[in-house]
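Give me the fold.
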Amino acid sequence: MIKLSNIIKKYGKLEVLKGIDAEIAKGKVTAIVGPNGSGKTTIIKIILGLVKADYGKVFINNSPINGGFEYRKLIGYMPQVASYPENLTVAEVLNMIKDLRNRFDHPEEKLLKLFELTGELTKPIRALSGGNKQKLSAVLSLMFEPEILIFDEPTAGLDPVVSNRFKEIVSSERKKGKTIILTSHIMSEVQELADEIIFILDGKIHYHGSILNLLLDKGEVNLEKAVAKILEERAIWN
């Protein structure tokens, strides 16, 4: 479980997060959604320890992270756009990450087949397509069986077949009781994969709950239309 307690983050005079309180449960897929600049990426970076909050605490399995790093072993992270050493091959990148984790087995083999990367192992990163780089990020995020998975726009650049396989993997990982965070601008994808949604706007949470309850509350069957209603209601009150 991940708990965010009164998280505040400023960049100069710009207050990006304005007191975020949320609990992200195990065994569920929680989607963090909102317009560009709403604070989604900052929340993820704070959870990962890449950015430090100005105020508030993050708890992982009921323990505050307090600037530590050991908890990161529990997390598998798939960024929207990953950057790897361009001169290394796919196999060398995988081996480098395994060395950092002190792993000498081959946890990646099944995933390489699923994501159709076996034939790319000897290619340097600079020669990979954007889609294959995304597949490599997926493999790296999943290969150590982490308790927590964070997927940032994961299907961007994936072909339909591999995208469907990825979605099946997400469903399988959820059934294992893992804590999963997903960000996506594709509301149909969020509706398909997620159990709960956190909708962020201007650094504040405007909705946190099940997708089903949101659809019922807004009288919609389509998540995109339900989210649009949140934005319309906010515009009216402002």
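The two ends are 34 Å apart (CA to CA).
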